[in-house]
From TrEMBL:
Organism (species): Gracilibacillus boraciitolerans JCM 21714
Keyword Magnesium on entry: no
The protein's name in its UniProt record: Sugar transport system
InterPro entries: MetI-like, MetI-like_sf
GO biological process, one term: transmembrane transport
Length: 281
């Protein structure tokens, strides 16, 4: 009898967990669905009361207006170039730094690591003026280097890699590789990299999304329309006198699609990296 009661309690608990997950999933997906609905309707339908909750027939028209207003495809290509290059650079450099902090002993290691963590507490807006001054001196205005180079080192990326490597790569394995004659870089490349692929996926999603959505810094350093990233280009859809919300949300929706694709491609590795420590005995 007691086992039956326990079984019923477990079933009820699972039921509430599933209900909670369904509600959370709905709340997470609804903003994207709402944006799609608005992107497929005419401006008059969007401003109506009550608003429409089902997709309309203006998807092609609204997106055509976007293309006719801004260089949407060119901006998407610019954002892809910048985001991919920065993400690859961050994965390589931050994993190298994280490996060094996790497995090597050198003078000032703890101080340097704490200093890196402190930079995470400083709002990036405070560095806007000195960064702009440096970029101007280097004559990098209106150049992708002004966005790519400052983004190649990420404090969170170093912290994330250091913690993941510390918990997933035994020191004995590193020492055995050194005894066999491996250089430090070969230990990193042949031993660390295959193990930290899930951590790569997590950091790639976070960094790609951050660079893709960045608006302030590209707005400051990019001057010509041909070099605009997608977030800067979308600003051109806003008119001070006549606001076409269907066109604006159409551009916003299609600018979000690459982020969804990247997450779906790396979703399995992302979940694996977050649950890696939970399945260890």
């Amino acid at each position: 009898m007691s086992e039956k009661i326990k079984s019923n309690k477990v079933s009820i608990s699972k039921f509430f967990v599933y209900v909670l997950l369904v509600v959370a999933s709905f709340l997470s997906i609804f903003p994207l669905y709402w944006m799609f609905v608005m992107a497929t309707n005419h401006n008059s339908v969007i401003n109506s009361v009550p608003p429409a909750f089902i997709p309309g027939s203006e998807l092609v028209t609204n997106f055509t207006n976007v293309i006719n207003t801004i260089d949407f495809m060119g901006a998407i290509l610019n954002s892809l170039i910048v985001s991919i290059v920065v993400t690859i650079g961050v994965l390589f450099l931050c994993s190298l730094a994280g490996f060094a902090f996790a497995k090597f002993d050198f003078k000032g290691k703890n101080f340097l690591f704490v200093a890196i963590l402190v930079t995470m507490m400083i709002p990036p807006q405070l560095g806007l003026i000195p960064q702009y001054f440096i970029i101007t001196k280097l004559d990098w205005l209106n150049d992708f280097k002004a966005i790519i180079v400052p983004g190649l080192i990420d404090a969170f990326g170093i912290f994330w890699m250091r913690q993941y490597i510390s918990s997933n790569i035994p020191n004995e394995l590193v020492e055995a590789a050194k005894i066999d004659g491996c250089t430090n870089f070969r230990v990193y490349w042949n031993i660390a990299v295959p193990v930290i692929i899930p951590a790569f996926a997590t950091l790639a999603i976070i960094k790609f999304m951050y660079v893709w959505n960045d608006f302030l810094w590209p707005l400051v350093v990019l001057r010509e329309e041909s070099s605009f990233t997608i977030q800067v280009a979308l600003r051109g859809l806003i008119d001070n006198y006549v606001r076409d919300n269907g066109m604006i949300l159409s551009g916003t929706f299609w600018a979000t699609v690459p982020l969804i694709v990247i997450f779906l491609l790396l979703n399995r590795l992302f979940i694996q990296s977050l649950t890696e420590g939970a399945v260890k005995s």
